Amino acid sequence: MADVIKNEAGSFPPGKKITVVFVIGGPGSGKGTQCSKIVKHFGFTHLSAGDLLREEAKSDTEQGMMIKNMMHEGKLVPSELIVKLLFKAMLQSGNDKFLVDGFPRNEENRQAYDSIISIEPEFVLFIDCPNEEMERRILNRNQGRDDDNIDTARRRFEVFQESTMPVVQYYEKRGKLRRLAVSHLQVDGAKSADEVFEDVKAIFVQLNTQANQGGNVSRAQSNPFKRFLELFCGCFGTQEATN
């Protein structure tokens, strides 16, 4: 449950349940494709840290130019800036369920998120895809992105291994990582998109089931007087039936 979260972008209402799922995988692993399917089936808002940065990079500002240059060189943008862009997008969406794609990319990202937003992710979906397959996808997607070239792609693979895998390990230790190879909750990125989504769908169905069960418990706990009347009337009715 999120507390009141405030910064210059605004705040979530106090006591409102906000659901966040991080989707982590190497560049070209298929994160965006799976997120689109999750949005369609489960009503989440898809927020891509990379897309938010690329949109900001198009702006004719000093900050936009800085982001554009760093992305072209395969460097990581300051964590506080990424988190504030994410938080602003979350507030503007009007939704309460979010897929955060390509984030956190390193421990600094994670710590900035914990400090600024402080909403514990329900889980972290890890899409594990071989470098060779990710490289092929990046070079074939023809999206006109500045970072879609072989040298930048390989540098991004190195950055992912050095910086993002420690984040994956952090959430694994906390029991938040969904890894199919171990507990039927990791996604094999080498499969087709539809095959992968069958595994993904099972994870989110489980999340919905847990949320519904939690909601039923919360409603019962929130109205103890109603529960007392039900028990009292039940006992009274039983006595009448036996007389």
From TrEMBL:
One of its GO terms (cellular component) is cytoplasm. Keywords: ATP-binding, Cytoplasm, Kinase, Nucleotide-binding, Nucleus, Pyrimidine biosynthesis, Transferase. It catalyses: UMP + ATP = UDP + ADP. GO terms for molecular function: AMP kinase activity; ATP binding. The keyword Ribosomal protein does not apply. Pfam families: ADK (PF00406). It is found in: Cytoplasm. The keyword Nucleus applies. Gene3D superfamilies: P-loop containing nucleotide triphosphate hydrolases. It is an enzyme of class 2 (transferase). GO terms for biological process: 'de novo' pyrimidine nucleobase biosynthetic process; pyrimidine nucleotide biosynthetic process. Its EC number is 2.7.4.3. Belongs to the adenylate kinase family. This is adenylate kinase.
